[in-house]
Specification:
6 helices; Jelly Rolls; alpha+beta; 264 residues; 8-stranded antiparallel beta sheet
């Protein structure tokens, strides 16, 4: 479904957009089950290095349910057909096309587990600042709730309009966040199966989860296929090789439209 003019204007002004339902109950449950299988190591098609534990559980083997120890899992769409199908759903990609245009690629995905009892804070940041290898820094992310995301269990909080100020260097971040020109942060609660969109330069954070309720959220990071690619980092090189592609053959996942020579 196409975005309305009001929705497009809201995103342009604020850098985020609370949206409606994009997954039905069966799809949500399927992704929950698959995420649990991957997190607990019951399937082997996702490389273990893409499963990151909370800091308190790294190192020596810890007792308890591993599902309550995982912080996030990444690049699932490159290895798992269920997550790839989610990234290609028209219910998600149609609004992305309204925001980015017809030629769309997926950079990566992050399943933020925010485990019950142990889910820690993710502090203020801009996603695109972590990806300086792309120009322009103009990503749009779809954040899909697999569990109800609430204030109590660590939903996302955004700073409206912060994307308009461009990429802020890490050593200037605290000064920027204290600036009186910025509006008050806004928490965005998202029911399971629903999503929100946010610009890659929008400042956002998530709180801790000390509740008994899981709070899994799938972040799908999209960019224009026309985006310039400025280099390969070690992390990306390993991804390419594990996808059984040489650096010269690997291309980021085309979601819709066409590819362009010399671009991502």
């Amino acid at each position: 479904m196409a975005l309305s003019e009001d929705q497009r204007d809201f995103f342009a002004d604020n850098g985020y957009l609370p949206y409606g339902r994009v997954l039905d109950d069966a799809e949500v449950e399927g992704l929950r089950q698959r995420s649990e299988e991957i997190a607990r190591g019951r399937v082997e098609h996702v490389p273990p290095r893409f499963v990151q534990l909370e800091a308190a559980f790294r190192g020596a083997a810890a007792a308890g349910d591993r599902l309550d120890q995982v912080r996030k899992m990444t690049h699932l769409c490159y290895y798992d057909e269920l997550f790839e199908a989610t990234a290609r759903k028209s219910a998600i990609v149609d609004p992305i096309e309204d925001l980015l245009g017809p030629n769309i690629k997926l950079y990566c995905d992050q399943l933020m587990m925010k485990s019950r009892f142990n889910g820690t804070v993710t502090d203020w940041h801009q996603d695109s600042v972590a990806w300086p290898q792309f120009a322009p820094q103009d990503h749009v992310s779809c954040w899909v709730a697999l569990d109800d995301a609430t204030l109590d269990n660590g939903c996302m909080t955004v700073i409206p309009g912060s994307h308009k100020w461009g990429p802020i260097a890490r050593d200037q971040r605290e000064r920027f966040l204290r600036h009186p020109l910025l509006p008050e942060p806004v928490p965005v609660e998202v029911p399971a199966g629903h999503c929100m969109f946010h610009h890659g330069l929008n400042f956002h954070r998530t709180g801790a989860n000390s509740t008994p309720n899981r709070r899994r959220g799938l972040a799908l990071h999209y960019m224009r296929a026309e985006t310039m690619y400025l280099g390969v980092r070690d992390e990306e090189l390993r991804l390419m090789l594990e996808c059984e592609k040489s650096p010269g053959e690997f291309r980021f996942m085309l979601i819709r439209g066409e590819e362009f020579a010399g671009r991502v």
